[in-house]
Amino acid sequence: MHRKNGFHSYSNSQLTLLVILRILIGWHFLYEGVTKLLSSSWSSIGYLADSKGFMSGIFLSWAGDPDVVKIIDFMNMWGLTLVGLGLIMGCLTRISIIGGILLLAFYYLSPPPMVGYTFALPSEGSYLWVNKNLIEIFALAVLYVFPTQQIFGIDRLIFKKRIRD
């Protein structure tokens, strides 16, 4: 059985897997945000100060200003948490996806996965150009173009758009 959204038809299993992908990525964001909110010692300063690559000047300047670090910490903790909640609940899904992509882009650009860069912070693996942040950026981009918010989530109720059988 296929559902139609006006342009393409997708099977129930395809749509279900996309919704599950959205919820899993949401869980990842939510967990990262909540653990940072609950940790009195967490700060982005180490991450910013360890930056390499073409954007390192910006990240290093941010790390040198305690007021900017406080703002970045606040935006990280609450950004991760709100993006996670939005993705899990399917609430303002497209805004949550864009927010998630922006956060991940910063995470990708600060310590870029390039040959020859060494970092003070421990790495969870060896990467060349492609790491989990880049993969998650593209997974979110895929979710952006599919109507998962119309299948399961609060957006379906708010915007009353339904995919009809």
Summarize the structure.
With 165 residues, the protein is mainly alpha-helical. It is built from eight helices and two strands.
Number of structural domains: 1
- The overall pLDDT, averaged over residues, is 85
* Overall outline: globular
**Biggest β-sheet: count, sense, barrel?**
2 strands, antiparallel
Report the C-alpha radius of gyration, rounded. Answer: 18 Å
Query: Count the helices. How many?
Result: 8
How many strand units?
2
Quickly list its features:
8 helices, mainly alpha, 165 residues, two-stranded antiparallel ribbon
How does this model look, in words?
The chain has eight helices and two strands. α1 (12-38) packs antiparallel against α4 (66-89). It is 64% helix and 4% strand. It has 165 residues and is mainly alpha-helical. The protein has one domain (10-114, 121-159). The chain has helices at 12-38, 45-49, 56-63, 66-89, 93-109, 132-145, 148-151, 154-159, and strands spanning 2-4, 9-11.
